[in-house]
Request: fold
Amino acid sequence: MSQNKQLNPYSWLSKNGNPFIISGPCSVETEEQVMVTAQAIAKSGRVNALRGGIWKPRTRPNSFEGMGTIALPWLKKAALETGLKAITEVAKPQHVEQCLKEGIDMLWIGARTTANPFSVQEIAEALKGVDIPVFVKNPIHLDLQLWIGAMERLWHAGITRIGAIHRGFAVGKPNRYRNQPLWEIPIELKRLYPNLILISDPSHISGNRDSIERLSQRALDLDFDGLMIESHYQPDKALSDAAQQITPEQLNGILNRLKYRRSSSVNLEFVHNLQTLRNEIDELDEELLHLLKKRIDVVEQIGDFKLKNNVTVFQLERWIEILKTRGELAIELGIDKEFIVEMMKTIHKESVRIQSELNKKHKIEQS
Ligand code: PEP
Ligand code: MN
Reply:
């Protein structure tokens, strides 16, 4: 394949209308663990591939870094026994060689590796002349071009069965998720490459068990081709990512409850625009809440101040002034005045409550 050939992925994964489900432990720990987990997840009849990390790229040293090469045959054996495809992560050419030797069916490149073009290039070179499906996780940080670039390197090496795995992005600010989904990014990827196989990994997005079902449904609603969900027969004892792994029973429950919709009704342009606007709303709401918190802090300071100076919590003139000035500003900004007055009443009620609580606490402390 020539170096200049543009990435032109095709829809190589035949799913008969069903999403392609990859599941299994974060890390392969023992022969028994991967076998028991595989047998239990295969029972659902909905799982297609068995995942298991052999070499784990851990953020900090001294964490469990995977069992290494000795665990490869355990993964392969469990896959063979259950009729699932075996898939694991490769980060170096030696990993590729060992996986090929063991007959691993599919590979993925992890988020930390995708971010490094040197590593991806080395993996691509090691894969030259080999016909194996390779999935590429998005880089840890938000960089769509870097994600596409990694897939291009594989494409130029002659790998034609390429898939992308969306595992969320580290955005640096604390959030309810371990990694922010930023759905508009994979949607943009799909818009650019409509035939590219796109899978979502709700486990690494959420970082905990509670959000996996909701995130999975979201991915399916956005016309993703499949899901990668971490499962473990004893999640609490897992040596890596314990908080986000679910039992095979929980997995089967989720897979049974998910609503599988027809993808033809999805208008990508519409979904993309809607998602971008919703992200803006999310950001604005976050700002609003942070502002409210700041306001509450000042309300508490005023409460203290009133206490020390023996002044009543409720001050009629101040309240009248607030309603008047905020109402006028609402009109100036073209916002419905009644709405702003109602909102200010709610905020003021809460301020009075907070200051009255301070008063009560003060009295208790004095008695
Ligand atoms: C994993 O799949 O176990 C993993 C390490 O994921 P990521 O590369 O997305 O962090
Ligand atoms: Mn993991």
